[in-house]
Specification:
106 residues; single chain; 50% strand; mainly beta; globular; five-stranded antiparallel beta sheet
Length: 106
């Protein structure tokens, strides 16, 4: 269903194969049964667990919350008191869990 090869994440979505360069991914959020992959210019909804996605991603992706994985190469600022991650695109999310804080400190 989902393959990772040479820093490219590929998956089938409604019969179409979609390939995403990992460097374009900002974050991945689990929302109920769906998983949202947010990229620089788009977003994709797929049905896969975060654990499975995590095994397919390069090591610069870190889990920031039980329902969120972030591309640390795209994070421009982290505000731990507010639990907010800012990305180089101006996007931000508030998905920092206490259990995962140490993963985010570089």
């Amino acid at each position: 269903y989902l393959n990772s090869h040479n820093d490219i994440l590929s998956f089938n979505d409604f019969g179409n194969t979609i390939s995403i360069e990992c460097r374009d991914i900002l974050y991945i959020i689990k929302d109920g049964r769906k998983t949202l992959i947010k990229t620089t210019n788009s977003s994709y909804e797929v049905y896969i667990t975060l654990d499975k996605v995590m095994t397919l991603l390069p090591t610069y992706f870190k889990q920031s919350h039980r329902s969120c994985i972030v591309n640390m190469r795209r994070v421009s600022k982290i505000e731990f008191p507010k639990r907010v991650l800012y990305f180089d695109t101006g996007d931000f999310i508030d998905y920092i869990g206490n259990k995962y804080k140490k993963e985010l400190v570089v």
